[in-house]
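Same chain as my last thread, 437 residues:
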Amino acid sequence: MASKCFVSGCSSKPYGKCDCSENYTIFCQLHAAQHMEMLVGDKRHQCLRLYYTPAAETKILIKKKIAELRQGLQKYRKNVISDAKEIIGAVKNNLEKALQSLDKLEEKFLRIALMTEFNEILDLSKEFDPESVLKMEPFDAEFKTEDWYFPDFISKAESLVLNISTCFNTNINPFQRPKHDINSIQDDKYIFFKGNNKELSEINLKTFQETKFNLDLMENINYQISSCILPDKSVFYYSNPISSTSTYTFIIDKNKNIKQVANSKRSPYLYPIYFDGFVYALGGRNNLAQRFCLKSNTWEDCAPLPAGLNFDQTAAVLFNEEILLTGNHLTKMIKYSPRNNNYSDIIGLNLTSGSRKILFKGGKKVFILQTSGNIFESEENNINKWNSIGSNSITSGSYPSTYVIEYNECIYMILLQNQLWKFNLSTKQLILVNTYN
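reply #2:
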């Protein structure tokens, strides 16, 4: 095998060779991922079955690879057995719950049909031996479009439970899959909207060069635009025209196409959050509490924000399926549960009133930046325990003008003066990268 990557100018160690061409090209890990991203259909399917050397196998970071390629690769070697057993157990538990619901189903023939399917799925589950995965070569399994590959009974079980869920108008989750964080990007493109001059710009996070796009947008949308990224990597924009009591709300997809959607009540300086098919608009200058359904293109009310709290210049982040909220004038943070439509306080945190705040997630932790005051870091998966990790070097204009993203173990954010800031999750350093005109 060659001693270095095939790509010109790259001296990295070989990671594996691609068999989608006759040349069996040798790639390093980075260029192997980039090569696969450029392929589609059968070509990608074939190429993903890379032939790895034993030395390279030990270096496979399978979780990162799956996230980067966003394909249905199975976990490999050490992790696959425990994960398979865990998911299988979750499926069986949910099937048992669904079975209890089936007993209450009045339509006899439908109940019999679902019961037959249920028994077939249980038989399939007994045939699967997670230990057999150890005998497979890397990626030498059939592909599915789901986030993770497991045997056929998993997808059948999911379909059955969803069918039962539909019968009872409930929301049974067939099994919990590891979910990709939509605010973490795998390519190096960061798109943001410049409200002051109505420009859409794209920043290359490797070179920090800016590319501007001319779009036909309304003249009066240039007052306080906030946004959030959606699962298909399009961006939802929430704009507050000065001369209107409602918003101008639109979506820009990956191809820079604009789609106007239903408008909401006006509430400048809120930070929209996407979760489970909805965009939540909570807080802002008018203490708004609404959510936008992407499927029906309609807005609906959420539970009102707690009385007596001023959520102007809202900071928000989604963490463990809850939306954390605070604001410029608040000394505490609350959390909103989309599933239960209620609010509760977060303890163990004393914030600075009159200080603009930025919330973001990094790994299993939440971070808070304040214009005046400390940077706080939560403990892993525990938002009721916080540690001060330093002072904030952002002194003014610290409100995000677009969504905050994670890229290469760093958090990137564009602030109101079109400043690009970077927060390194390892060193906890906050750096001004560039300012865009």
